Structures are given as C-alpha cells and as structure tokens.
Amino acid sequence: MSEGINTHWLMHYRVVALVNQCRRLIRDEFGTRLSLTDPQLRQELGRFAARSQSRELARLMDDIAREAGAPEEPPESEKTAPKRMYRGQPLPEEPTNEAAPARSASTKAVIYRGRQVRG
Question: Alpha carbon 42 to chain centroid distance?
C-alpha cells in the first residue's frame, strides 16, 4: 500500500462494516473469500465491484470511498528516511564515509543514554 494510498483507510469501524458487507456480496457472487489483512484489499474490492452485476456492491464501494477518503499522498516527512531517535531525542547525524575523517574502530563514537560518551 505504499503507492500513495492511505494506509489507515481500514481503521474506522464504519468502513470495516462496509468492507465486510462487500466481502459477503463478493463471496456470494464470485465464490472468492477476501481477507481483511490483504495489503491489496482495496484494489481487489474495486476490481470485483467493477465486474459485479450487483448495484448494492457498487453503492457500498461508493460509501467506502466517501467514508475512507480518497487515496492521499504521504507527507514529505514520510518520503525521506526518518531520523534516528533515542528516548525521544534525535541522535547526532553520522557523517558519510567520504566526508568523515579516517577513524579507527577504537575511536568510534559511543552514545550512552542519549549522550556521546567518547568519539
């Protein structure tokens, strides 16, 4: 679900109830059981709804889209690598190998309880 789809769309009780109704209709019409834990569940529901003859399934999919919201882009902070944290405090950035002076293994920076002890 990393293609820009809201990963929390299934965290609302009303949406789960609608999805379960869709799953029941799909199971009755197509004989296929869909799992709530499937990462591609939203796409599978849409694919079956497009093939279905049931107007109820199409209505439920519209309700799901309205309740869950449209797919949204992740914020910029999630696109970059997260900062390393220790007990809620950001750790100092480690320089890359090209910019870092040559250090031996014994002079490596040691962080203990959020503070740099040696380095």
Answer: 13
**Residue 32 and residue 23 in contact, taking contact as beta carbons nearer than 8 Å:** no
Structure tokens at 64: 């799901």
Please tell me the distance from the alpha carbon of residue 45 to that of residue 41, in angstroms, as a whole number: 6
Quote the percentage of the chain above a pLDDT of 70.
71
- Report percent pLDDT > 90 for the chain: 34
Provide the pLDDT for residue 96: 59
Rama region for 104: left / alpha / beta (φ>0; ψ in -120 to 50; rest): beta
Amino acid occupying residue 104: S
| Residue whose C-alpha is closest to residue 90's, from 107, 77, 103, 76 | 77
Residue 108 phi/psi, 5° resolution?
-65, 145
Q: 0.90 cut: is pTM over it?
A: no
d(CA 92, CA 80): 17
